Amino acid sequence: MTTSFPMNDGNSAYSYFNNSQRQKEIIDASKEMVREAIIGKLDVEVMFSSSKLFRIIDLGCSIGPNTFHAMQHVVDVVKEKYNNINLEFQVFFSDHIDNDFNTLFRSLPMDRSYYASGVPGSFHGRLFPSRSIHFAHASTSIHWLSRVPKELLDEKSPSWNKGLIHYGTSNSEVVKAYVAQFEKDMEVFFNARAEEIVQGGMMVFISPFSSYIRLVEFFGSSLMDLVNEGKLDESLVDSFNLPMYFPSPQDMTKVVEKNGCFSIEKMELTHPKSKLVDDFDAKTFIINLRAVLEGLLINHFGSKIAEQVCERTLLKAEEISTWMKANGGKPCQLFVALKRK
Fold it and tell me: Where exactly are the transmembrane stretches of this chain (predicted)?
């Protein structure tokens, strides 16, 4: 069963709308790669003899202006490629069913008449009619799993992730469970997109890479601080795991090749320039992560504990800044461009 993991909604101090600077940096850093993929590999012109409508989907669009920023770039590049064709555009946004689409569309540039409505629901499964989509864009969303691997919820399983909330420093059985869930979700995802995307159409992923594992683990250490102080039952931490897997190029190659409907046009680990990293601005980085993770924490621990965890993680800013200095040059983003065969 798919579970919904929306970001902090609204326009508050800790909303994703106001705290997604790092995500915007990732989108900006990938713009030239997206442009190269569209200009060099997109091949749907033959269809324009019967219709001039070009449909784009943004999968895992979340909340706020970043998604419009990314979609505007896609529209502009498609116009550049097909400058001799008077195209009409439809852009659809899809995310978890509980996503705050009201906040999303309040940030819509009002002069952009081609934006379509949001499509709530899991982006892993089918969303659109067969052969209806020309370009799919998934920025910083493909790492979300549809659910926590069920093995991690069984105290008697070797995958019981005691004292930890993710797989970064866990035993191999925990890692295997995460990998298996990722592969299962991606099988559903690629089967759905293979039906929806036209021949010659494209799909682009921009996913966080493994360097983020350590960052989310700082929230786990804050939970354990509360356990050690007697303020939180350890069993609650043992039963909490983040539904996130940061795929490697090998992971992505495996699931794409298993599906068989897409060709890999580009796959690259990158290190996009980041003002937050360059300035070792750990506090802003933590608040950005809070906007992503707080809803999960509230759902499992309640709002009071969730707030304490976030505040305690913010107190670790100096330690996190030291980690950022030591690891700032490592690849932190996976870019993948696929073409529908």
Answer: none
CA nearest 104: which of 67, 133, 58? 67
Report which of 226, 224, 214 is spatially closest to residue 282, judged by C-alpha positions.
214
Q: What is the span of the domain harbouring residue 152? A: 16-340
Q: Is residue 5 part of a domain?
A: no
Across the chain, what does the average pLDDT equal? Answer: 85
Dist. CA 138–CA 129, nearest whole Å: 19
Per-residue b or e along 325-339, where b marks 16 or more CB atoms closer than 10 Å to that residue's CB: eeeeeeebbbbbbbb
The structure tokens 């690629």 sit at: 190
Cα 68 to Cα 108: distance, rounded to the nearest angstrom: 7
Taking residues 192-218, what's their average pLDDT?
A: 90
Distance (Å, whole) CA 337 – CA 264: 6
What are the structure tokens assigned to 36, written together?
Answer: 């190269």
Tokens of 29: 């850093």
11 falls within a domain: no
Residue 265 lies in a domain: yes
Distance CA 96, CA 145 (A): 11
Q: What is the pLDDT of residues 145-204, one digit of tens each?
A: 989 999 998 999 999 999 999 998 899 999 999 999 999 999 999 999 999 999 999 999
Beta bridge partners of 262: 340
Answer positive or negative: Cα dihedral of 322, 323, 329, 334: negative
Tell me, what's the pLDDT at 62?
65
- The DSSP H or E segment spanning 92 is strand 88-95
Whether residue 10 lies inside any domain: the answer is no
Cα–Cα distance for residue pair 5/2, rounded to 1 Å: 10
pLDDT band of 110, cuts 50, 70, 90: very low
Bridge partners of 232, per DSSP, are none
**Considering only CA atoms, which of 214, 145, 138, 213 is closest in space to residue 180?**
145
Cα dihedral: 91, 96, 102, 105 (round 10)? -20
Task: Say how many domains are in the chain.
Answer: 1
Average pLDDT over residues 135-141: 83
Beta strands in 185-232 (DSSP E): 197-208
Maximum Cα–Cα distance across the chain: 69
